[in-house]
């Protein structure tokens, strides 16, 4: 087996059901939708606090609520997440059961994690938290469409690293999809069976745009203004979501700040909802009523309305917030220490980033999230090459050599996600020394790309780094080919051998292991067969 220190670090990021691939939220009853969303949100918060047992409880409730409504693929992802939480909680048997259930629901997920988990069962118990980190996100790719941003539920992402696969990806940065999906306040109103029948009639009047009927109902029964359903939505939240500015104005005239102060499950305010759904007129009316203090209200993930607007790309609203609150709002960090700038960088929104820098100064480029990532690291992660160049120049080159908390430079981050254009631009803006810089695991960018199966990045790095980079050892003396063989990355192994030939095949790590022995130990049969054939050919 490969040394323990080469075991990839576990990345736990839980996403909402809207991002569950082929889930169909529109078919989920509103009450069930709300429960699943709330439970996944709470699980995410528990993970941040390293309270894995609490995360298991919330994920179990999400599974129970969604069992009859979610697609097998969506449900499999939640089982996969609970498996990871069980593992961190020191319950490998339960983790293995969830892994089996995940694979049963969706065989597209890798089966290798199940075999690795067995090593953690009683009789081969883990002695440390690091030893338990054997379920990881695989580099195997399920096809995702190109990046398409739609407010609410229909987010799709260009990054092809599947977050919920069970094995394999050593990486510094979070999954691209999860970056955007930590908060969403989108309700499913069409089949509402919550609250009183009168409240439901009011909700449907709002949905259909029948302002006159809604106003008449509120006039007859002012209690409707303060009635809330199981998701803690009142009629103002509904009107803000649908952008019904006329009804919003009427509600505020009738109830004012009393109704404005109420929040939905998940902590979002009416301003959060309007910001997410790009209703600038409604946003202005809410701020007129509630004042600037509304801008600093936070949801359960400590996100302000500016975070929300930046995350979903509602630039006009975000820029309006800046004119009202300026830098003080811009530097607010959420539960994961991310500023609105981090989310704008993830989207590649140069215009909004330019506005943020103009308001907050270049010092905002230095702000780091909970993993030590600046907005430049985020731009590199998402392959936002043009934006990255702009940000480097905006910071007068100071950000190009910044490292994350685990020592990854911009090349490491771009290599992990396979963004060749970004790698090229970073080297153009930085220096060749970055090719040989090592992260906390003593990996170069080539090591990171090889382990994660990024063949294009591997090929590019081998070309620019030459044999010196190709033969750079890990802390255990292995090469990038050793890592590719351990991670079952056949295409990468073929590419590396193209550059390294016989010398690379014969290279041994610090424990005397050849690449063939590594592939055999990890039961990677295809690579084992390929290496055996290569040795026969080269020795003829």
Automatic annotation (TrEMBL):
A Pfam family assignment: Ank_2
Record keyword RNA-binding present: no
Keywords: ANK repeat, TPR repeat
Secreted is among the record's keywords: no
InterPro entries (UniProt xref): Ankyrin_rpt (IPR002110), Ankyrin_rpt-contain_sf (IPR036770), TPR-like_helical_dom_sf (IPR011990), TPR_rpt (IPR019734)
Annotated TPR repeat ranges: 76-109
Residues forming coiled coils: none
Spans of repeat ANK: 266-298, 371-403
PANTHER family recorded: NO MECHANORECEPTOR POTENTIAL C, ISOFORM D-RELATED, NO MECHANORECEPTOR POTENTIAL C, ISOFORM H
Protein name: Uncharacterized protein
Taxonomic placement: Eukaryota, Cryptophyceae, Pyrenomonadales, Geminigeraceae, Hanusia
């Amino acid at each position: 087996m490969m040394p323990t220190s080469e075991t990839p670090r576990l990345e736990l990021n839980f996403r909402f059901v809207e991002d569950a691939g082929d889930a169909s939220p529109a078919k989920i009853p509103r009450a069930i939708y709300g429960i699943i969303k709330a439970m996944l949100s709470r699980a995410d918060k528990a993970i941040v606090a390293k309270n894995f047992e609490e995360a298991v409880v919330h994920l179990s409730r999400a599974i129970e609520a969604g069992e009859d409504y979610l697609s097998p693929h969506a449900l499999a992802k939640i089982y996969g997440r609970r498996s990871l939480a069980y593992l961190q909680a020191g319950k490998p048997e339960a983790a293995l059961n969830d892994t089996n259930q995940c694979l049963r629901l969706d065989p597209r997920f890798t089966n290798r994690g199940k075999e690795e988990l067995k090593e953690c069962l009683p009789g081969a118990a883990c002695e440390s938290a690091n030893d338990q980190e054997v379920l990881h996100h695989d580099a195997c790719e399920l096809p995702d469409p190109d990046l398409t941003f739609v407010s609410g539920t229909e987010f799709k992402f260009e990054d092809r690293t599947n977050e919920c696969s069970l094995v394999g990806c050593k990486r510094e940065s979070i999954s691209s999809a999860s970056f955007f999906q930590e908060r969403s306040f989108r309700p499913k109103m069409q089949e509402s069976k919550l609250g009183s029948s009168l409240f439901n009639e009011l909700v449907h009047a709002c949905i259909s745009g029948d302002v006159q009927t809604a106003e008449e109902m509120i006039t007859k029964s002012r209690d409707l203004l303060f009635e809330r359903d199981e998701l803690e939505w009142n009629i103002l939240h509904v009107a803000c979501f649908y952008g019904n500015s006329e009804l919003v104005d009427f509600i505020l005239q009738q109830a004012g700040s009393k109704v404005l102060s109420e929040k939905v499950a998940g902590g979002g305010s009416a301003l959060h909802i309007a910001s997410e759904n790009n209703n600038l007129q409604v946003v202005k009316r809410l701020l007129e009523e509630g004042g600037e203090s509304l801008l600093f209200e936070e949801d359960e993930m400590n996100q302000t309305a500016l975070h929300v607007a930046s995350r979903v790309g509602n630039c006009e609203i975000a820029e309006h917030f800046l004119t009202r609150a300026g830098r003080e709002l811009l530097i607010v960090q959420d539960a994961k220490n991310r500023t609105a700038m981090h989310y704008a960088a993830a989207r590649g929104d140069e215009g909004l980033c330019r506005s943020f820098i103009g308001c907050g100064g270049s010092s905002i480029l230095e702000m780091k999230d909970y993993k030590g990532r600046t907005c430049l690291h985020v731009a590199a992660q998402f392959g936002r090459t043009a934006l990255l160049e702009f940000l480097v120049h905006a910071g007068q080159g100071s950000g190009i050599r910044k490292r994350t908390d685990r020592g990854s430079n911009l090349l490491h981050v771009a290599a992990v996600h396979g963004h060749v254009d970004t790698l090229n631009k970073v080297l153009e803006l930085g220096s060749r020394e970055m090719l040989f810089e090592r992260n906390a695991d003593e990996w170069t960018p080539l090591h990171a790309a090889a382990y994660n199966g990024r063949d294009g990045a591997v090929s590019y790095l081998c070309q620019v780094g030459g044999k010196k980079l190709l033969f750079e050892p890990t802390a255990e003396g292995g090469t990038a080919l050793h890592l590719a063989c351990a991670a079952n990355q056949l295409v990468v192994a073929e590419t590396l051998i193209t550059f390294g030939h016989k010398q690379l095949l014969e290279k041994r790590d610090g424990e005397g292991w050849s690449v063939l022995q590594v592939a055999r130990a990890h039961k990677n049969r295809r690579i084992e067969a390929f290496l055996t054939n290569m040795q026969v050919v080269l020795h003829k």
